[in-house]
Write a structure and sequence with these properties.
A hairpin with a 5-residue loop joins strand 6 and strand 7 (157-162). With 370 residues, the chain is an alpha/beta fold. It has helices at 15-33, 46-52, 58-66, 89-99, 123-126, 167-182, 198-211, 224-233, 245-258, 303-315, 320-335, 353-368, and strands at 4-11, 37-41, 69-74, 104-110, 130-136, 144-151, 157-162, 187-192, 218-223, 240-243, 266-273, 280-286. The mean pLDDT is 95. It has two domains: 1-103 and 271-370, 3-Layer(aba) Sandwich (Isopropylmalate Dehydrogenase); 110-261, Isopropylmalate Dehydrogenase, CATH 3.40.718. Bound molecules: 3-isopropylmalic acid and magnesium ion. Residues 90, 93, 249 line the site of 3-isopropylmalic acid.
Length: 370
C-alpha cells in the first residue's frame, strides 16, 4: 500500500484551528479511498519558540526534509512581537523555504461567483477571476547579503538589504511560469522594475530568453508598479503573473483582496524534483496570516487551509480527481450559503470553523464515494 507522509505544522493563531479541519479530510481520504496518508507533527513560529526557544527546531527541520509534503498553518502574533529578529516566528517559515529550496510559490487568486460581492472591486471586474501569481521564493531581497543595520559611528545608522538574482534563479522560475501557463490560458506577464533596478534588467532579459523555448505561450512584460495598478483596474487581463520575492509578496496580497476574502486563498511552494527520486519538496500554506485577533474563537475561515490541501493533492501526489473534487466541494458549500463570519452576507448566520469544516467533509465524502 502507498504511504504518503504529511508533516503538519499548524503554527500560531488560527493555524491550529484551520489545520484541525484538514485533519478531518485526511482521515476521510484514508478511510474512503485508501489514500495512505501518515501524519507527523511539527512546531513552527511562536509555538516552536515557546517549546524549543527557536522558531523551528533541528528535529522538525529534519522531519520537513524527509516528508512528502508539509502542510503549514500560520506564524506570528503579538506575544512574540518583541523577540530578537533572528528568532521571530517568521524566521521559521523563511528557514523552511530556504532549506527545502522552495523556489516556486504558486498563489492562485480565484473569485468564487458566490463571493464576488465581497470583493472591494465591482462585481463585473472580479466575477470569474482566475489568475495565478508565481512568486520567486528563495532569492531576492529576502535573503541577499549583506542584510544588517550598520552603526556609522557618527550618530547615524544604516539599514541595508540586498536584492540579488542570479541567472539560474530567474531561469527556473521562468520555466515554471511558462509550464503553468500551458496548463491554463497560455499567457505570462512578467513584472519587475527594470527602469530602476539592475535585477529587473537581468530578470527581463532572462525571462525573454527562456521564452524562446515556449513559443506557444504569450509573454508580456510590465513594470511592477504598473502591474499593481492594472491588478486593481482590470485584473481579468492576467493569467500567470511571474515576479520576484518582494513584488510577489505585495502583488499577491493585492490579488488576494480582489477575490473577496483573504481567508479563501491557498498557496503551494514547490522545489526542484530530486534527481534520483523525482520527488519534489513542497509546502502548502494559506495566504492569510495567523489572525491573532480572532484566534481561539472558532470563527476563522478554514477554506484557505483546505484549498491548500487540495493543491497538495494535486501537486505532490498527482491526485487530480480528488483535488478537483475538493475544490468543487468548496464552491458547492459557498453556493449553499454556508459562510464563516469573514465572508458572511446580510440575512445569513455565520457558521463556526468546525461547522464549515464538517460541511466540506460531508460533501467531499459524498463526491469521493459517489
Ligand atoms: C507571505 C508572508 C511572509 C512573507 C512573512 C510571514 C515572512 O507575508 O508569505 O506572504 O513576507 O513572505
Ligand atoms: Mg505576504
Amino acid at each position: 500500500m502507498t504511504t504518503r507522509t504529511l508533516l503538519l505544522m499548524p503554527g500560531d493563531g488560527i493555524g491550529p484551528e484551520a489545520m484541525a479541519e484538514v485533519e478531518k479530510l485526511i482521515a476521510l481520504m484514508n478511510e474512503t479511498v485508501g489514500a495512505g496518508f501518515t501524519i507527523e507533527r511539527g512546531l513552527v513560529g511562536g509555538a516552536a519558540l515557546d517549546a524549543h526557544g527557536t522558531p523551528v527546531s533541528e528535529g522538525d527541520m529534519a522531519l520537513a526534509l524527509a516528508a512528502d509534503a508539509v502542510l503549514f498553518g500560520a506564524v506570528g502574533g503579538p506575544k512574540w512581537d518583541k523577540v530578537a529578529y533572528e528568532k521571530r516566528p517568521e524566521a521559521g517559515l523563511l528557514r523552511l523555504r530556504k532549506d527545502l529550496e522552495l523556489f516556486a510559490n504558486l498563489r492562485p487568486a480565484i473569485c468564487y461567483p458566490a463571493l464576488a460581492d465581497a470583493s472591494s472591486l465591482k462585481r463585473e471586474l472580479v466575477d470569474g477571476l482566475d489568475i495565478l501569481i508565481l512568486r520567486e521564493l528563495t532569492g531576492g531581497v529576502y535573503f541577499g547579503e549583506p542584510k544588517e543595520i550598520r552603526d556609522l559611528g557618527n550618530g547615524q545608522k544604516r539599514g541595508i538589504d540586498t536584492q540579488i538574482y542570479d541567472t539560474f534563479e530567474i531561469e527556473r522560475i521562468a520555466r515554471a511560469a511558462f509550464e503553468l501557463a500551458r496548463t491554463r490560458r497560455g499567457k505570462v506577464t512578467s513584472m519587475e522594475k527594470r527602469n530602476v533596478m539592475k535585477t529587473g534588467v537581468l530578470w527581463n532579459e532572462v525571462v525573454t530568453a527562456v521564452h524562446a523555448d515556449y513559443p506557444d505561450v504569450t509573454l508580456e512584460h510590465m513594470l511592477a508598479d504598473a502591474g499593481g495598478m492594472q491588478l486593481v483596474r482590470a485584473p481579468k487581463q492576467f493569467d500567470v503573473i511571474l515576479t520576484d520575492n518582494l513584488f510577489g509578496d505585495m502583488l499577491s496580497d493585492i490579488a488576494a483582496m480582489l477575490t473577496g476574502s483573504l481567508g479563501m486563498l491557498p498557496s503551494a511552494s514547490l522545489g526542484r524534483p530530486d534527481d534520483t527520486t523525482g520527488r519534489r519538496r513542497a509546502l502548502y500554506e494559506p495566504v492569510h496570516g495567523s489572525a491573532p485577533d480572532i484566534a481561539g474563537r472558532g470563527i476563522a475561515n478554514p477554506i484557505a487551509m483546505i484549498a491548500s490541501f487540495a493543491m497538495c493533492l494535486r501537486y505532490s501526489f498527482g491526485l487530480t480527481a480528488e483535488a478537483d473534487a475538493l475544490e468543487a466541494t468548496i464552491a458547492e458549500v459557498l453556493d449553499a450559503g454556508i459562510r464563516t463570519a469573514d465572508i458572511v452576507v446580510p440575512g445569513i448566520e455565520p457558521v463556526t470553523t468546525g461547522t464549515m469544516g464538517d460541511a466540506i467533509a460531508e460533501r467531499f465524502r459524498a463526491r469521493l464515494t459517489a
